[in-house]
Amino acid sequence: xxNAVAVLIHEYxxxxxxxxxxxxxxxxxxxxxxxxxxxxxxxxxxxxKFGGIAAEEKISGDGKxxxxxxxxxxxxxxxxxxxxxxxxxxxxxxxxxEVTDLAANDSDLGYVFGTALETATNGETFLMELGTQ
Length: 133
Prior knowledge:
The protein has strands spanning 7-10, 16-19, 31-35, 39-42, 50-54, 66-70, 73-79, 89-92, 98-101, 114-116, 125-130. It is mainly β. It has a 5-stranded mixed barrel. β3 and β4 form a beta hairpin. The termini are far apart.
């Protein structure tokens, strides 16, 4: 089930508009990395900063430069190579749209996407609470 999209389970707050590239093709449910200013793109690997999850599809070249983005909620997401542990902060794994447990000393770098609500192994889906405290 490689690179599965995130599925909304419980919505905590409405999505917010954020900037994206007109040439970007972003499926609904894609994990998004944050860049400056208030801009998102599909995650590409480890050390991507928390942007959120795409609440809608963005079609490449459609002329739009805004996308609705969830920043809070509970989502079903896919575990990366090292798996996930219930209660631990989650970060983007080496594969786009996959998350794994936070490495030591990374909590202040903006990498945390949420908290695991279940333990999972590589490629398994699990519930994650999106957002930072």
